[in-house]
Amino acid sequence: xxxxxxxxxxxxxxxxxxxxxxxxxxxxxKYRWKLEDRSFVTMLVYSQFRQDPKSLDYERQLFNDLSNLxxxxxxxxxxxxxxxxxxxxxxxxxxxxxxxxxxHSLYHNVxxxxxxxxxxxxxxxxxxxxxxxRRVDEWLKEQNQVSISSLxxxxxxxxxxxxxxxxxxxxxxxxxxxxxxxxxxxILNYSWVSDNFPAVKAATVEEFNKMYEELMNTVDKELKGExxxxxxxxxxxxxxxxxxxxxxxxxxxxxxxxxLRFYVTCRSSHVYDVFPADIRLxxxxxxxxxxxxxxxxxxxxxxxxxxxxxxxxx
Length: 314
Fold this sequence. Notes:
2 domains, 10 helices, 12 strands, elongated
């Protein structure tokens, strides 16, 4: 499936080579990726430098940005000696060398906190700009095309990289072809689940089956007009909905813009023990809705996924 790249934020202290890298990526890829020249890392660093109380807001905005797996950050974090030597050649219209050294330290501290995130790529500034641009392009391509297993690993890495072991919320949009090549109906079979996901209990698989049956029954009834309006629903309906107070708390299927939109909200999911099975169940449910609505294989499914608590500990 495609874990589409929404934007790529290019970050780095002055004299790091950020602008050169930005230009090289665009030139080499013919504007394939949406690049942003600086974003919330810079906003956070410079607010800290000014001792601005809004720095806490920018920190929250940065981590919210990085909790969206469709957002990527490319950061150049060079050693101070390299920044200093470049500064002495080109100078700066705003900051002197002493200020720049403090700003460099603030950048480095932020980078240390986020360098383990799966959607962050860090360079040390010594790379040839063409080689760095090539690496960015290859990294983005790898991030853009994922299997269910690799998507799960990205989510696990994102949660494990936080100090608390929790991301709240974690979001992603993924596009799957109408072929659903990774569908595995045995996700509803406890013996298969226990073999592949030993941490998932029999009661959880029983819950999987109830969720599946309820959503399928809802779609059937709405298509037949068994609702408060006594009106058969069409593909434009907003009524193909499943709700509960368990971990997967909300699902809505809507056909919009020529695609099947499959909106999911997870109240909570353990990214190691439960989520690897959860995502396969939701994938199977999406395929089943796609089929029940009579959609052709050339109609893609777009997963709009929110996990209010993606956590590594109970």
